[in-house]
Each structure stands twice: as structure tokens, then as C-alpha cells.
Amino acid sequence: MTKHQNNKEQVILAAAKEEFLDKGYDGARTTSIARNAGVTHAMLHYYFKTKEQLFERIFHETMGMLVEGILEVFTQTEKPFKQRMAEALDIHFEAIRQNPRLPLFMIREVASRPERFAVIKNIISTFAGNVLFTMQKDIDQAVSIGEISPIDATTLLLDMISLNVFPFIVKPVYEAATGLNLNDDSNFWDLRKKENIELIMRRLTPSQA
Amino acid sequence: MTKHQNNKEQVILAAAKEEFLDKGYDGARTTSIARNAGVTHAMLHYYFKTKEQLFERIFHETMGMLVEGILEVFTQTEKPFKQRMAEALDIHFEAIRQNPRLPLFMIREVASRPERFAVIKNIISTFAGNVLFTMQKDIDQAVSIGEISPIDATTLLLDMISLNVFPFIVKPVYEAATGLNLNDDSNFWDLRKKENIELIMRRLTPSQA
DNA sequence: TCGTTTGTTAACAAAATTGTTAATAAATTT
DNA sequence: AAATTTATTAACAATTTTGTTAACAAACGA
After folding, report:
1. Residue B1 CB closer than 7 angstroms to strand D?
2. Strand, helix or coil at A192?
3. pLDDT at residue B22, rounded to an integer
4. Nearest-by-CA chain A residue for B168
5. What is the CA radius of gyration of chain B?
6. Separation of CA A185 from chain center
7. Are B30 and B48 a contacting pair, CB within 8 Å?
């Protein structure tokens, strides 16, 4: 009736993303994806030869978003170091808040099939190298003028990521245990962000001599 | 030749634990478990009717360890609050260090099949209720004598757990990205524990007025 | 408009995976 | 030692899941 729209490809991609994010590669079913997309499962093989290839597509897009998000965070201006870290935490936290299932997805897939990660390995490592290098430089400078107390860049980065990411990772457990739905509780997440910033600020503030 | 040992059941359990911890329920294969245990896969069904039942067994033991571990942490004596939290962090961290794959295992399984969690839901929630209640009491007391700055018990608990648990959860990603093996790097983990304690201590210390 | 490419379907095939059964051996009980 | 219970194996069955194919329809380019 209407003209051919190849939007079925997009519909499949959307359904696949849902399925993979929810259940992981091993738990995902191509038939289930097709059903949720409203197409026969042959279509899925027509557009994306195999389950593996469909997954690769999702995985890469997903990882792309994640890396971009983090990159943005650390291309900051020339404000005081502490303020920049506070802003970085804020941006990073909000980025995850908009894609809360992404971190667990990535971690789960890497844990059960580390080889798959090899593809993007060098992207990540050079990226991390750069970020850590400039970060350490900025830290040393801020330390030298007495703005903050000394800390390794890697240590600080892991502090920040742990605090920002873990609550989203543990969310399913929390929700399962309490029966509450944290998605509806914007107050909880606002407070959490505030607390993370508070923690890092206190960590950076020089101890009174 | 030798007499019947029903240790095959144990061998299967051990192999199953490995498999489930590594690959999760969906990724685990009963044939693979049997192979690694050195038995025919019919044995697996003989001892544990189904894959599901075998998993339940592992899941419960695992959860048991996790809950016990956390319980121990918070049955502390009558030292100053800050010192008790430092010790709790230490004990908690070491407990995870000895079972580093356990947190990701639990989170992954709950995320992909929340129903499964229902069984232990009330255990967790009453337990959490108790811990949080006494913790909040202790906090209020410590605040009243000026030992620490005010904080919600739930907030503090999530701070502590985030910092202690996340590094172990992200370990596979870190290792995949760097090619390094963090298990061999006891120095890394010692420093991490120290940093977590440092962070929480600074968070608790009253700000200079 | 005719031929070609692209999209779509239903039915089928292959493989993997879980679970069962019947026969047998080994241990245990009496 | 005979009877009985428990353990073990190999072969098989059922189901699920991924992937294929052949036939058909719709769009498109010449």
C-alpha cells in the first residue's frame, strides 16, 4: 500500500537493542527480537546475516556513546581544578542517567566474552592514556598552588567512575529487593549526584595542616 | 576399584560454580559443566534434576556467602564511629577480594531474571532494615558529639559499597582494555582499599567551621 | 512498461542443548 | 551371598534456536 520504507531495519535495531540490553547476548533470542519488532525472524537474517552481527552493531553503537560521553566530560575549560571535577562528575552522571542500562550491559558482555572487547581495546587504552596524562598534569599544577591535596589521576578517575556508575549497576538488585522503582525517583538520583560531588570535593580539599 | 565416593556431586558443583560465575546462567552449558567435571552429562541430571535446580543451589550458596560477609562487617564493638567504619570497609573489601567474581555474578543474574531474586527478597530487606537502623542511630550519636558530619545511613552505605565493589566489577573491562592481570597486582588492591578508607574518612570528618 | 533489484513470507533444515530412559555396574543391607 | 538401593553410562528424544531457501511481492530504473 504505502511505499517501501526500509524502516524495518530500524525497528529491528531498536528491538534488538532492548533485548540485548535487557538480557545480554546469551539471554537474547532472535525470535523474540523479531516478534517485538513485528517482523518475521527471517527479516532479521535478511538485514543482519547473523545474531552475532546484529549484536556487534548494537555493541559498537553502545560503546561509541559511552566513549563519546566520557570524552566530552574531560574536554573542559580553564576553571579551577576542583570546579572542573565537580562539573565533570555532573555531566558524567547525567550521561549515565540517560542510559542507565549501558554500563551493566558493557561490563556483562566483556566479562563473559573478553575477546569481543579486543576490537575496541586500543581505542579505549589510547583514550584513557590521554585523559590520564592531561589529568595528572592538571592535578600536579593544582597541588603546587595548594588548591588540592595530592592524588594519582588513575586513583581519582576510578573514585569518580565508581561513585557515579555503581548505583546504576546495582539498581536492579535494589529494585528487586525493595520492590520500588528508582526510575520514578528523581529525588534519589539528584541526591546521589550531590553526594558523589561532595565526596570527591572533600577528597580533593587539602587537609588542614 | 576404589569404593563409591559420592564426591562426583561435589566435583559437579565445583565445575558448575565456575561455569555459572564465568558465563552466567544463560551462557552456561550443562554439557560444558559435565565435561569440566569429568562426568557424563547424565550424571548432572541424576544429581540435580535440571540446569535450573543446579543453578539455584549455586545461587543460594553464593548469596549466602555474600549476606554473611556483609553481616559480619556491621557487628562491630564500641569503638569510635569513624574507626568502626574504617574497619568495616577493610573487612568488606577483603571479603570481596577473596570472591571477586561474586558481585558481578549476583548483579548480572538479578538484572536478567529479577523473579529469581524474589526468594531471598525478604531476607535482604529485613537485614538491610536492621543494619540501616542501627547505623543511623550510631551516626546520630557520633554527630551529636561532633565526631562526624551529618549523613544519611543509606547514603553512607551506598558510598561504601560503591567504592569497595565497583573496582571488582569493572575488573574484566580493565583487564580486557589493558591486557594486564589485576589478580597478580596485590599492590593495586592494597592501594584501592586505602583510598576507599581515605575517601570515607574525609567524608565523615566534620568540615572546619 | 519490462526487467531488475530489493523486501517479505512461510516453510524448512541444522545444530545445539536440555532432559530421559533402559541397561548395567557397583556398593550396601540383611 | 542375595536382594536392594545407589551410581553410572550410552544412546536417544524433545525442544529450542539459529540460519536457509525458494517463491512471491513491491518498488525502481531504464
Report:
1. no
2. helix
3. 94
4. A162
5. 21
6. 20
7. no
CA B24 to chain centre: 15
Hunting for cell 579551577 — which residue is that? Answer: A80
Residue A176 · residue B114 · CB < 8 Å: yes
Q: Do you know the residue count of chain A?
A: 209
Residue A69 CA, chain-centre distance (Å), reads 8
Chain segment A158-202, per-residue pLDDT in tens: 999 999 999 999 999 988 888 889 988 999 999 999 999 999 999
Q: Give the separation between CA A16 and CA A59, rounded to whole angstroms.
A: 11
pLDDT tens-digit profile of A29-48? 999 999 999 999 999 999 99
Candidates A113, A127, A107; CA nearest to A169 is: A107
**pLDDT-based confidence at residue A74 (cuts at 50, 70, 90):** low
- List the single residue in B with minimal CA-CA distance to A121: B177
What is the pLDDT, as a whole number, of residue A77?
63
Could you give the CA distance from residue B208 to residue A16 in angstroms, rounded to a whole number? 53
Condensed to tens digits (0 to 9), the pLDDT of residues B91-117 reads: 999 999 999 999 999 999 999 998 888
**Distance in Å, alpha carbon of A4 to nearest chain B alpha carbon:** 36
Cα–Cα distance for residue pair A63/B5, rounded to 1 Å: 49
Query: Looking at strand D, which nucleotides approach a protein CB closer than 7 A?
Result: 6-11, 17-22, 26-28
Other Cβ atoms less than 10 A from the Cβ of A145: the count is 9
Distance CA B96, CA B188 (A): 15
**How many residues in total does chain B contain?**
209
User: Within B75-152, where are the H helices?
Assistant: 81-98, 102-112, 118-144
Yes or no: say if B65 and B102 are a contact pair by the CB < 8 Å rule: yes
SS3 state at A92: helix
Compute the CA torsion angle B123, B124, B130, B134 (nearest 10 deg).
150
